[in-house]
């Protein structure tokens, strides 16, 4: 029984572990920003102990660890890792310099030449690029199959297949993947496999965050995050995290030590002190606004299609309500919206340019999960690594809702729609017209 047993994750994220043997400064209310690249070892024996124990630490044991050098382990980062493992319900966490560093480490540290990954067709653009530009060079095959099509997965899977990889919701199209169904499929495959060759379920949980979805509860093996987005939350730090079973920890720590893509302690500190304690507050507010904005877009005659898991018309409504739940068990549809304008009436690029020129509360910029509302066009920006044929919707728009008043976000979207429609086709200028 620890002193924080029974407290809600929202409270835990504010207070962290309370006391930790990883700190020398137990009287600080806010964790101090540690910034020491190297550590005094006191004796050669202690130095040797630090090296021999490297890679074995899983959770805070109450014993002060032997710190040696920042790239091996460091208190602020280590506390952040403990918190991320805790809130995802995982055994261990290893952080990295960025989300892409975490994704590439979690896959590359596990896979061997000749192995295969099956990945969902739609993914964040740089993950797609990792698979298409790099894995063929490393002798790792990547097949792309809809993760909700278990029959096709079953027909394709072979002894070489080691990882099922997806995002849910996907970036940018907000499709969901049924994690429980994939767990059952992996169990079926693993019934005849050795421990070392198990088929593993990897999910990038960046969009939902542990606030809105805890994939390990549904049977995922590995959870990945870009800490740069919702978990950092303020748009000031890049970072990534892998939450994994404890057997994977030694190899991931070794990988990080030798490839060197560590999360800087100053970035870890900001995520620990600002990002995590405000996660639930920010996400609740943002999804409250996202629902209002999505509903407004949906009734606008200039908008052809709106995808948001909280809308009644969301195609995977039942799965969304089963899988996307917050710490209190309430539906958590998130802060991301994907939509298309009616191309016969309004050019998406003109609309986005109008916002860039004149909007105050909506900013044209990539990234997401920021205090500010961000808008972008994935096909030509974040997902430009996909070819034109692979991009299902070249003019679609991605919106990440921030902390502004929802009425102001709608006001800016409305002004831009109205201004552009007026210039383009004066006869059908009003963005306020409801759909018939
Ligand atoms: C779903 C998803 N995963 C991973 C990443 C990569 O994160 P980073 O930019 O921190 O490397 C992103 C970045 O946008 C993302 O949207």
What report would you give on this structure?
Helix content is 36%, strand content 13%. By secondary structure, the chain is an alpha/beta fold. It contains 15 helices and twelve strands. The strands form two sheets. It has a seven-stranded mixed sheet with strand order 1-7-6-5-4-2-3, with helices on both faces. It has a five-stranded mixed sheet with strand order 8-9-12-11-10. It folds into two domains: 267 residues, Type I PLP-dependent aspartate aminotransferase-like (Major domain) (Aspartate Aminotransferase, domain 2, 3-Layer(aba) Sandwich); 149 residues, Aspartate Aminotransferase, domain 1 (Alpha-Beta Complex), CATH 3.90.1150.10. The protein binds pyridoxal-5'-phosphate (PLP). Pyridoxal-5'-phosphate binds next to helix 4.
Fraction of residues in H or I helices: 25-40%
Spatial ordering of strands, largest sheet: 1-7-6-5-4-2-3
Bound molecules: pyridoxal-5'-phosphate
Number of domains: 2
Number of strands: 12
* Contiguous uncertain segments of 5+ residues: 428-436
The whole-number mean of residue pLDDT values reads 93
Give the ordered list of helices and strands: HHHEHEHEHEHEHHEEHHHEHEHEEEH
- Shape label: globular
CATH evolutionary superfamily of the largest domain: Type I PLP-dependent aspartate aminotransferase-like (Major domain)
- CATH fold label of the largest domain: Aspartate Aminotransferase, domain 2
**Class by helix and strand content?**
alpha/beta
Q: Total number of helical segments?
A: 15
Structural Rg: 23 Å
